[in-house]
Amino acid sequence: MAIRDDFEVATQQLRTILQRFALVFLVLAAFAAMLIGKADTILVENARVLALDLATPALEAIARPVAVANRAIADLREFASLREENARLREENSRLLAWQTAARRLENENNRLRELANFREGPEASFITARVVGDSVSAYVRGALLNVGRKAGVTPGQAVVTGEGLAGRIAEVGDNSARVLFVTDVNSRLPVQVERTRERAILAGNNSPLLRLTLLQSVAGIQPGDRIVTSGSGGSFPVGIPIGEVVQGGSEGTIRVRPFTDFSRLEFVRVVDYGVTGLVNTGPPAGSASPAQKAH
Amino acid sequence: MRDESFIARLDDLGRLVLPGMILLFFVILTLAPLRVPYVSDALPLLPALVVFQFSLATPERLPGPFLLAMGVLLDLLLGGPGAPVGVSALGFVLIRAAVVANRRYLVGVPFLFQWIGFCLLEWMFMVLVWGFTALWTWTAIDPMPAMVQYAVVIVIYPLLAPILARVRPRDPLNVPEPARGTARPGETTA
């Protein structure tokens, strides 16, 4: 009897201690999680991918109704300016038709010149179309979740484009999900060139709507309105995907670039499978990128 | 009356897990591609709001280890290369502890005081997450987006909190006081 009482007293004491220090334990556990995340990045990367794969079906289920609602709101807004929009589009259409003629002529000419010069083109790109099922946008990240993954041939480092231009690159890949890091994210650094002057530079994001152009040899030549395109340096991206246009800068130090992609309206994107992503070590250091290397 | 007792048990179970399910829902909702201006900015802070509100009403239904797991899940889902995994967990646990320790000043008081309490704790949560993220990635993160998030979630609180407060248990000893909701004395809800 006495032993049992002692035991009960002991368990009671243990329980009080546990309750008293529960907060300390929990705080320590949270710190431990952070430290583990810092020490073992591959483990965290795998955990992230697992969480993404688990959350994607749920997100996919709510993405469709949300998309419908978003579109309804956008439709209502556009309805108000239907007439002006129509006039603007008609004008743009006639201008684009003129450009199309010019482009056809140039393409033919280009092909003939390439044949003459025996020019070997880079690998051909193929596309994987994906639905944006989640926004990974917070005060610290600018990205999105896609409903395609390794099974569809997506690998880290691939370019993600929309009709307007480059949206970002693939950062993490699960079996049926992938995370895009937008060009506006603070971790995004892209080798680019100015379309008009062919000058090379680095385009960096800083979580704000505008991008920053750095490492230019001569800042002076840049004018507002200059288009910025991918340079293909490093081999991970195709050359010449439009990213944005210069909105300010030139004389002073920082040059700001406004991306062409409207990140608040993304619904479908295309992942560019360029076939050489394995050359650039962008995603986790795991050898997930190498099997995708294809010789064209 | 076996059926009733079964339903009653189901009811109890439902009430037991409902706060946790709502928190999980808001954690996943963080990623939903909701394009409503401003509201979508505030989504990442909404789980903290849920934690605050349920810590106020039924802290025993959001045990610490569960909050830890939800916080880690939120950090994993929100992503961001190099961002600390577990900082939201730390924030959740601290919010719960702060609310439980100060229940005297937060429960059964006019709604305005709860709101002020929420503003204070959410501010600390935001500063904590911002600080750790800046420290972990060793970059000067622009605090402006976080401020916008904070401002929006402060405005959302009075809209969302009364709805969440309805999940409180309805046993006779814990009838919601009329001052909390819009119910008048004698009025019953289904």
Keywords:
heterodimer; A: 296 residues; 3 domains; six-stranded antiparallel β-barrel; 4 helices; B: 190 residues; mainly alpha; 8 helices; globular
What does this structure look like?
The complex is a heterodimer of chains A (296) and B (190). Chain A has 296 residues and is α+β, with helices and mostly antiparallel strands. Chain A is built from four helices and twelve strands, in the order ααααββββββββββββ. Chain A folds into three domains: 2-68, no CATH class; 81-121; 125-296, Beta Barrel (Thrombin, subunit H), CATH 2.40.10.340. Chain A has helices spanning 2-20, 22-39, 41-80, 82-117, and strands spanning 126-135, 143-146, 159-161, 166-173, 178-182, 189-194, 200-204, 211-214, 227-230, 242-248, 255-259, 268-273. In chain A, the strands form two sheets. In chain A, strands 1-2-5-4-3-12 form a six-stranded antiparallel β-barrel. Chain A has a six-stranded antiparallel beta barrel with strand order 6-7-8-11-10-9. Chain A is elongated and about 100 Å long. The N and C termini of chain A lie far apart (82 Å). Chain B is mainly α. Chain B is 67% helix and 0% strand. The longest helix of chain B is centred in the N-terminal third of the chain and has 28 residues, at 2-29. Chain B is globular and about 60 Å long. The two termini of chain B are 22 Å apart. The model of chain B is unreliable at 171-184 (pLDDT under 50). At the A-B interface, helix 2, helix 3, strand 1 and strand 2 of A face helix 4, helix 5, helix 7 and helix 8 of B.
